[in-house]
Amino acid sequence: MSKRGWILFLSLGVLWGMPYLLIRIAVAHIDPVVMAGSRTLLGSLLLLPIALHRKALGPAFGKLGWLVAFTLIEINIPWWLLGHAEKQLNSSTAGLLIAVVPLFAAIIVTKLGHEKLEARRLLGLGLGFAGVAVLVGLDIDLSHMGAVALTIVVAFCYAIGPIIIDRKLNDVPAIGVIAASLIVATLIYAPFAPFLMPEVMPPASSVISVIGLGVLCTAAAFMVFFALIAEVGPARATVITYVNPAVAILLGAVVLHEPLTIGMLVGFPLVIAGSFLGTSRSASGHGVEAQKA
Predict the structure, then answer these.
(1) Pairwise CA distance, residues 260 & 247, whole Å
(2) DSSP at 242
(3) Is the pLDDT of residue 19 over 90?
(4) What are 204-258's pLDDT values in tens digits?
(5) Distance between CA atoms of 29 and 83, rounded to whole angstroms?
(6) What distance in Å separates the CA atoms of residue 157 and residue 101, rounded to the nearest whole number?
(7) Which of 123, 219, 273, 286 is in the most buried spot, having the most CB atoms within 10 Å?
(8) Are 108 and 221 in contact (CB under 8 A)?
(9) Where are the alpha helices (DSSP H) in the chain?
(10) pLDDT of residue 114
């Protein structure tokens, strides 16, 4: 990989490893719907001029049904659920649980008949979900199992979203899909936001976190992702899946002083190894899907 490729790769690893930390800070004082809606609004405002310049919005809105389906599954539902989950879970725990996205993607693609669940993939799925079981069993209080369930639903949504892109929106420019989706997501959140606004001005840390989610983790991250794909190709770009949870765990420990637990130390390598084995490219299949929050 070129020097530029490495810079883009490492930058994206940070940008898509940061959301868990920022969400954890934001939802302490801001409702998840308001947080997610502010994020989509900022992201759409920043990406809209680029999409208009490239005349990419028309083709995206031309497939409105699938665009709305993608938006609900990839943005509205998971960002709302993840915000609620992180009211209880540490940011590093959420980041590690989301790392099972490639495993869910492998199962879904297999069920659709596009790939076979061969022995290597079965081993990977077993290792990956064993890692989640270790994390949950050793680290998570039983009273937080609802938040774990919400995070698993988020991971499942993130696994479906790219499949919709690949099967139904693959002839639409990516910048058009993302910009249009953020616009649609903002419109979906908008009716609920006025009733959920905080009664008092949130602290600066929460406000800055929301701005960071919209500007850095959404608009900037997608632009870096597109640049990375152009630089190294889609298959190598998806390796970022294995970097995001490591960044989330590191940021949680350094910034929020979240503990590096035995469950994480054992569960993290199992999840990553399982994702690699369970989703590595076969002769007739697809590689892992990039995952973000």
Answers:
(1) 13
(2) G
(3) yes
(4) 999 999 999 999 999 999 999 888 878 877 556 666 777 888 899 999 999 999 9
(5) 11
(6) 8
(7) 219
(8) no
(9) 3-15, 19-26, 32-53, 57-61, 64-71, 77-85, 91-98, 101-111, 119-139, 145-168, 174-189, 193-196, 204-214, 221-232, 234-237, 244-255, 262-279
(10) 65
Burial of 17 (0-12, 13-18, 19+ CB in 10 A): buried
Which candidate, 246, 211, 291, 239, places its Cα nearest to that of 92? 246
Quote the CA–CA distance of 17 and 263 in Å, as a whole number.
19
d(CA 175, CA 181): 10
130: nearest Cα among 290, 239, 273: 273
Amino acid at site 197: M
Residue 130 identity (one-letter amino acid): A
Tell me 203's DSSP state. P
What end-to-end distance do the CA atoms of the chain give, in Å? 26
259 torsion bin: left (phi>0), alpha (psi -120 to 50), beta (else):
beta
